[in-house]
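Progress note, sequence design subtask.
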């Protein structure tokens, strides 16, 4: 249980530093429970990290995510570093997904499996805008941007802006 709490706190601290780099001094430089209490995307991120670890605490965290945010993160998701959830509502991330450092995920995004049960890997500094679906054994390259309401089922090279669905 202590390991899960440490994972969540360490993750919140990384997320907060990432947000500070993104939006400036609106976020304090040091993590504290008060910062977590004030910031909905940091709270959702903490629950996501705990849910991804699985076990009894992961099950409770997953339930909290579903009830409080309409989000679902299954055990086995790998968060490689900081991430940003500007509007943490309706986000679904499946068990084999890998989320790189500095990823931004907007509302109603699904990151999941294809019919073969294979999951995507998101590189560093990827941004996924609202209502997009990213599925399958694909790589979304570093610095890529996936526009709103798109289906992405093929790999995306680094630095690409996706403006139409890739089936």
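Output:
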């Amino acid at each position: 249980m202590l390991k899960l709490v440490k994972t969540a706190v360490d993750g919140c601290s990384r997320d907060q530093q990432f947000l500070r780099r993104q939006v400036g001094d609106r976020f304090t430089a040091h993590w504290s429970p008060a910062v977590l209490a004030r910031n909905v995307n940091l709270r959702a991120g903490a629950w996501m990290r705990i849910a991804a670890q699985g076990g009894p605490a992961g099950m409770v965290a997953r339930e909290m995510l579903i009830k409080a945010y309409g989000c679902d993160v299954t055990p086995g998701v790998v968060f490689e570093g900081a991430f940003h959830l500007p509007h943490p509502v309706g986000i679904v991330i499946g068990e084999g997904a890998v989320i790189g450092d500095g990823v931004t995920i907007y509302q109603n995004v699904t990151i999941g499996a294809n019919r073969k049960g294979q999951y995507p890997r998101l590189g560093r500094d990827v941004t996924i805008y609202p209502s997009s679906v990213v599925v399958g054994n694909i790589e979304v390259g570093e610095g890529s941007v996936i526009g709103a309401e798109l289906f992405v089922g093929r790999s995306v090279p680094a630095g690409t802006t996706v403006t139409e669905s890739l089936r």
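The CA atoms of residues 50 and 134 lie 22 Å apart. Work on this subtask will continue into the next period as scheduled.
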